[in-house]
């Protein structure tokens, strides 16, 4: 490092130190800072009150969970399958667009069939929860939301069945 570069580094360090100390809120030549020995007793109490207002708050998680009953079980652990799932990848030539389109159509049809099958199970779950909600006296807005979900699922199921029947009739 050259001599003039060292002087620049020292100068910049000094400038940073002076500005840091000048504009810092503690200590060195700060006219608003009063050491505790020079403060009045009422100022000390006020300072203690201000410090205590920033104390960490205790979490209210345990009591808040007990206050609201949940309709579904709060702990859900998905089943873990050790069997590797078979990947349904396209095995043909990617330059053959008709074969690839057939593969995509089959994949789409399989997805729709899986959705159609899953709707019945999901509707049954929602109906059980709806009955429980009626029994427990939930607000009508939440009950109507569940009814709307059931209607939407059944509508989508019938739409997908229609699309599959059109596809099979071609």
The total domain count is 2
The biggest beta sheet reads: none
Enumerate how many helices there are, as a single number. 5
Could you tell me the strand content as a percent range? Answer: under 5%
As residue ranges, the low-confidence spans are none
Question: What is the share of helical residues?
Answer: 55-70%
Mean pLDDT: 77
User: What is the H-and-E element order?
Assistant: HHHHH
How would you portray this structure in words?
This protein has 170 residues and is mainly α. The protein is flat, with a radius of gyration of 35 Å. Helix 4 packs antiparallel against helix 5 (140-169). The protein contains five helices and no strands. It folds into two domains: 3-53, no CATH class; 103-170. The N and C termini lie far apart (82 Å). The mean pLDDT is 77.
Helices, strands, pairings?
Blueprint: H1 3-23, H2 41-53, H3 61-67, H4 97-136, H5 140-169
Helix pairs in contact: 4-5
Main traits of this protein?
mainly alpha; 170 residues; flat
Short description:
The protein has 170 residues and is mainly α.
